[in-house]
Design a protein that fits this description.
The chain is 11% helix and 48% strand. By secondary structure, it is mainly beta. The strands form 4 sheets. The protein has an 18-stranded antiparallel barrel. It has a two-stranded antiparallel ribbon with strand order 2-3. Helix 2 runs antiparallel to helix 4.
Length: 549
């Protein structure tokens, strides 16, 4: 085995305190992290001139990678149409093949410079290689209560044979998880960790298969998605994908985290519990109708129980889940969604998602009074607004009604690792967001966002709301406000920046301010909050060619 190409990317943290000063983690004083970072800085200067590009493989690109923002911008400007897909993450092969076909006229300078940025990341090299390295993040966070450093590191180890086969493993060690109140894993000296990616992927002609653990995101929404999102930790999955001309079919089989439920208390001090396993099957069909329009339809079913395991009818990628559930009398939570992107004119598009959890058409019994359980996202983006060549602007409106994603059976709640599988805000809310992005230079982007959120009293974590059962007669009907109860209102301006220094490191930061009325759905209570964050990310990657054997 010989080393043919390698890439070295390293973070340069910017602490406000002296580089060698100590800080406290779990009550223990230590200066080792900053010493370690000094070593990385030295390595940066030693190896900055040795960078080469990465190749075309089936390795999936993590959803937090900077390339997605650049791809979105170029898609908005009319390029990379085959990457306007509503199924992510992309593979490096997908991005490389799209870049190879992309032609941008020299007069479109902003788009051309963004394309060059992607080319520097995805140019091919060795056809057969082993990859190893680290992805490093160093942040400094401040809010109204504390100032704290936050570090994270993701290991990388993989083998790829062109775009035919990839075996990959990436494990994350992260201090940021201690700020996530929904995280249920273990902590060690201020850090938490989990396997972020661990999969085997292969391609035979138009068919791609993936088995292991990875991120998933379905839908056209910019700030959220309704059916499958990246809110939970990466999923344990089997993924099947086939591309046939303008059609693309994807099927997913997921094993979710199990839940423990108290079934009964037979007598004081004796509690009977059950351990209920949970699974999700999903499939979607995408149709690229033309360069100006694409449409996707999808369905999922979440099922589980004390003695349930993968069930054959839901392993069938082309069966209609809801029909199987109804015909066979199986317990499960089925959802159906549709999404679209429409490019009605030059350098702007409209997009949307619509989800149905439950919709009662009959009015024969009290249970038929259950309000519709639906979700929606509608938005639009425009490049070069008001003749501003380097800018883009957009808005997005989303909402999910009460009871959506929720069920009477705890194991069927649309949650994974305590996080919503669908929209990150759960249910009983709506949200308006406007954004303005300016590419000050191809390497420097600034974003201004303003969001207005309304949250009702209900939640996907709460017991299923059965208040409609209290209606004495069906003829009386049942109505409820949206959102329900005392509505919490949040006004949120946010300013973000991203600076791509080179393929070794990048810098990021954001400032967010929240003004909240009826805080925690308490009438008249107000709350203010702010978050200030600056950080550096880096990617240390080595490639070893196996072509010599």
């Amino acid at each position: 085995m010989k080393i043919s190409n390698y890439v070295l990317k390293i973070a340069i943290p910017l602490p406000r305190e002296p580089l060698f000063s100590s800080f406290v983690v779990d009550g223990c004083e230590s200066s080792r992290p900053w010493r370690f970072i000094l070593i990385l800085i030295c390595a940066f200067y030693l190896c900055a001139g040795l960078m080469t590009a990465e190749s075309s493989t089936l390795e999936t690109i993590p959803l937090y990678h900077w390339c997605y923002d650049v791809i979105d911008e170029l898609t908005l400007r009319g390029y990379l149409a085959d990457l306007a897909s509503s199924v992510k993450p992309f593979t490096r092969s997908q991005v490389f093949q799209s870049l190879a076909k992309c032609q941008i006229p020299p007069q479109d300078l902003t788009s051309l410079q963004l394309l060059n940025l992607l080319n520097s990341e995805f140019l091919p090299q060795s056809e057969e290689k082993i990859k190893t390295g680290l992805y490093l993040i160093q942040d400094l966070k401040a809010d109204d209560s504390e100032l704290a450093p936050r570090s994270a590191a993701v290991s990388k180890l993989g083998y790829s044979l062109r775009d035919k086969f990839t075996m990959y493993n990436g494990m994350r060690l992260d201090q940021n998880l201690q700020d996530d109140s929904l995280y249920s894993g273990a902590y060690w000296r201020g850090f938490s960790g989990y396997t972020e990616q661990a999969y085997i992927a292969g391609r035979i002609g138009p068919i791609r298969l993936q088995f292991g653990k990875d991120w998933q995101r379905w839908g056209s929404g910019r700030f959220a998605n309704l059916l499958i999102s990246e809110n939970p930790l990466p999923y344990d999955l089997f993924k099947f994908n086939v591309a046939a001309g303008s059609f693309n079919f994807t099927s997913l089989i997921l094993q979710l985290d199990a839940v423990t439920v108290i079934d009964s208390v037979s007598q004081p001090g004796e509690i009977i519990k059950s351990h209920r396993r949970r699974f999700l099957a999903a499939h979607r069909l995408d149709w690229q109708i033309s360069r100006k329009m694409q449409l996707g339809i999808a369905e999922s079913v979440l099922y589980g129980g004390e003695n349930r395991t993968f069930e054959w009818q839901f392993l069938n990628p082309v069966v209609f889940y809801h029909g199987e559930q109804e015909n066979r009398g199986f317990e499960g939570n089925t959802l159906v969604s549709a999404d679209f992107k429409l490019f009605p004119g030059k350098k702007w598009f409209i997009y949307g998602e619509f989800l149905v959890d439950d919709w009662q058409f009959d009015r024969k019994k009290v249970s038929d009074l259950e309000p519709a359980e639906i979700g929606w996202i509608i938005g639009a983006r425009k490049a070069e607004p008001w003749g501003w060549k380097t800018a883009s602007a957009g808005f997005e409106y989303s909402g999910v009604t009460n009871r959506t994603y929720n069920t009477l059976q705890v194991e069927q709640k649309y949650l994974a690792e305590n996080h919503p599988l669908g929209h990150r805000l759960g249910n009983d809310f709506d949200s308006w967001t406007i954004e303005l992005t300016n590419w000050i230079s191809p390497r420097l982007r600034a974003d201004f966002l303003f969001a207005f959120l309304r949250n009702g009293e209900s939640s996907v974590y709460a017991p299923f709301d059965t208040s409609f059962y209290a209606v004495p007669e069906v003829s009386m009907g049942y109505e409820e406000p949206f959102p329900t109860g005392i509505v919490e209102r949040t006004y949120r301006p946010e300013l973000k920046f991203f600076f791509y220094y080179n393929r070794i490191c990048s810098f990021h930061g954001n400032f967010r301010y929240d003004y909240i009325e009826n805080y925690l759905n308490t009438k008249g209570r107000t709350e203010e909050d702010f978050i200030l964050q600056f950080g550096v990310t880096a990617d240390l990657s080595f490639y070893f060619s196996t072509n010599g054997y």
